[in-house]
Amino acid sequence: MRIALLSYRSKTHCGGQGVYVRHLSQGLVELGHDVEVFSGQPYPEILDPRVRLTEVPSLDLYREPDPFRIPRPSEIKTRIDLEELLTTWTAGFPEPKTFSMRAARLLAARRGDFDVVHDNQCLGTGLLTIQNSGMPVVATVHHPITRDRVLEVAAAAWWRKPLVKRWYAFAEMQKDVARRIPELVTVSSTSAADIAEDFGVDPGQLNVVPLGVNTQLFQPAEHRVRNRIIAIASADVPLKGVSHLLHAVARLRVERDLELQLVAKLEPNGPTEKLIAELGISDIVHISSGLSDSELAELLASAEVACIPSLYEGFSLPAVEAMASGTPIVASRAGALPEVVGTDGQCARLVTPADVAELTAVLGELLDSPRELRRLGDNGRRRALEVFSWESVAAQTVAIYERACERVATC
């Protein structure tokens, strides 16, 4: 099968999107399929050599080190460029829509080159153009962005609330597009229920395919650093619950020596950095970002506990990677986290979201119980091996492609 895999952002460290594109495309070519990734910026840094990459350049208005830059007049060449610029200047986020429009233009000239088009998360109006041209379209929705919007609006200062709402205006477009694509993929039954509720899609459109993990790369280490906690946050936003973990760490350090390895790209002088300083824990919080897969695997395997304090997760790759690493998990009872780590307490301890006292108590109990840490870690490794693999993800996804193709053939 000839597959066009679309992703408006594909760099591995842009959260789960980049990881998904990289490993799904590899799994598909392992099954003998032909895959071409169409990506906006930032482009994927690593793809399987058998996977072709077509770059879909934009104005790249959020690039480092000059986000929200002012482009030169000569860069504005098309109506799409102008829409991207004006949306950014009016506090909106244009990338999902403008990437999909550019991808639709590219694919219009290559209709005969692909059997199916698979969108990763953008849900832009350009997908409807592609679908209307007669090409089968499948779209992955990791979780409804409406959940992020609710939490960020609630956490914002009163004067920022209108700006946050404007930023998330693209969610209304995603709702409309999702309702009109017959085959949707999501990563958990929790996400499926939330997408059906928030986006108003027919539950029959949704196919649940959990994400996978490389269990050869992510595996237990021989030795762990005593009292080391690790947390991974793909974005410095309230949704990830990092502030609650920092408060818990500040309480725990009173009675024990410990350290927190926080893998996150923090906003310079932003709320998380300020909170670390205010709590007086700068000496025990070590921040890193942009790690390679091997560096992340090594860090995860070195910790005694992995903490996922999110207020919502549509899946959680860090949870699966921690389980594969044999690292015990303390996670919020929120979103899909119970579904991913299991509710039976065999490989994770679940806590009430945003409850700092409970989080502090559970972390302290585990750090004081080597036997329980060992039990949770062993069970987590076993669950990762039995339940999550990229080979299975690719095979299940191909079955959805085939249904999409059959649907178009009978229309």
UniProtKB/TrEMBL annotation:
| The Glycosyl transferase family domain, residue ranges | 218-383
A GO molecular function assigned to this protein is: glycosyltransferase activity
Give the residue range of the signal peptide.
none
Q: Tell me which InterPro entries the record gives.
A: Glyco_trans_1 (IPR001296), Glyco_trans_4-like_N (IPR028098)
Key words, A-Z: Glycosyltransferase, Transferase
Q: A Pfam family matched by this chain, by name?
A: Glyco_transf_4
Occurrences of domain Glycosyltransferase subfamily 4-like N-terminal (ranges)? 15-216
Biological-process GO terms, alphabetical? lipopolysaccharide biosynthetic process
Q: Which CDD domains does the UniProt entry name for this protein? A: GT4_PimA-like
- Please identify the protein, giving its name as recorded: Glycosyl transferase family 1
**Organism name:** Mycolicibacterium parafortuitum
Traced from the root, the source organism's taxonomic lineage reads: Bacteria, Bacillati, Actinomycetota, Actinomycetes, Mycobacteriales
